[in-house]
Amino acid sequence: MDQAVTMGESYGLHVPIDDNLALLRELVGTFALKAGLSKYRTEALVLAVSEAASNVLEHAQAAGTVSARRDLDGITVHVVDERGSLTHEHLRRTPPWPPRRGLGLFVIQRVCDRVVLDHPGGRSRLELFMRFGPDDALPQHF
Fold first, then answer.
1. Helix 21-35 / helix 39-55 crossing angle, nearest 10 deg
2. How far apart are the C-alpha atoms of 141 and 133, rounded to whole Å?
């Protein structure tokens, strides 16, 4: 991963997506914990971000970034791919049974409190939100 981790005005964390997903998970986890997210909810958010970043690498095959910020109620993460190939149809798909692959978006939507997809400038931007709460507070989707 590029050493250039930027701390901008609107984001507390902004990193490029590359093959070093372990480092990305570590950076997102550290950011979320320091921002005040509980341990359990941080682990769920890290899982969701890792799945989204993996999808950028595997399916978009284009440049991507992960940006995170602390909001009043929780942590918002934007996972962006420059190709813009993620669609609302992808989010609506039911995973195959028995599951082998293709569970990433399903898992993301189950562990996050809110998932929003938009396409600013032709890019795909997946917004993941995790509310502050105790370790035992599961997202409503579970």
1. 150
2. 15
Closest CA to 77 of 15, 1, 3, 2: 15
**Alpha-carbon span 23 to 6, nearest angstrom:** 15
- The continuous run of DSSP H or E covering 66 comes out as strand 64-70
- The Cα-based distances of 140 to 76, 78, 124 in angstroms read 17, 21, 25
Q: For the purposes of burial, counting CB atoms within 10 Å of the CB of 84, is it exposed (0-12), middle (13-18) or buried (19 or more)?
A: middle
pLDDT in tens, the chain (142 residues): 443 444 444 579 999 999 999 999 999 999 999 999 999 999 999 999 999 999 999 887 778 999 999 999 999 999 999 988 888 888 788 877 777 777 889 999 999 999 999 999 999 999 999 999 876 555 555 4
